[in-house]
Amino acid sequence: MTDDSTAAAAATSTLGYEQARDELIEVVRRLEAGGTTLEESLALWERGEELAKICRHWLEGARARLDAALARPESEPSTASDDG
């Protein structure tokens, strides 16, 4: 990996789910609209793949947290206070 792609990957990994999803939607719109060169289309496709990975990572993390919460016995105290 080059320094540029390492920096891009680091910047991309800080995106939240909503940011990545919104950017992915825009990438898909641009690809579907056409009118880009082959090189531009390939760059958009690659960016879309990166964004999809980020979204997938966030969703898998959310699923793991939900599964852990559902697996916790009811007798275990939750992190939220019940008194008020």
Describe the structure.
- Helix 2 (17-33) runs antiparallel to helix 3 (38-71).
- It is built from three helices and no strands.
- It is rod-shaped.
- The chain is mostly helical and 84 residues long.
- Helices cover 74% and strands 0% of the residues.
- It has helices at 3-13, 17-33, 38-71.
List its salient traits.
single chain, 84 residues, mainly alpha
Q: Looking at the chains present, what oligomeric state does this protein adopt? A: single chain
Mean pLDDT: 85
| Count of distinct strands | 0
Shape: rod-shaped
The total count of helices amounts to 3
> Which range does the strand content fall in?
under 5%
Question: How would a textbook summarize the main sheet?
Answer: none
Given as residue ranges, the uncertain stretches (5+ residues, pLDDT < 50) are none
Structural class label: mainly alpha
Distance between the termini: 52 Å
Whole-angstrom Rg = 19 Å
Helical residue percent band = over 70%
Short description:
This protein has 84 residues and is an all-alpha fold.
Give the SSE map.
Layout: H1 3-13, H2 17-33, H3 38-71
Helix pairs in contact: 2-3
